[in-house]
Amino acid sequence: MPDEAKKRIISRRQFMQGSAAATVGLLLAACGANGADEVTPSTIAQTAATDVPAMPTNASAVPTDAAATTVIATSEPGAAPTDIPLLQPTPECGDDDDDETPAQTEGPYYTPNTPERTSFWEAGTTGIRLVVTGQVLTTGCVPVAAALIDFWHTDDNGVYDNEGYKFRGHQFTDANGNFTLDTIVPGLYPGRTRHIHVKVQGPNMPILTTQLYFPNEPQNARDGIYSPELLMEVQNAADGQAATFNFVLA
Question: What is this structure's pTM?
Answer without folding.
Answer: 0.67
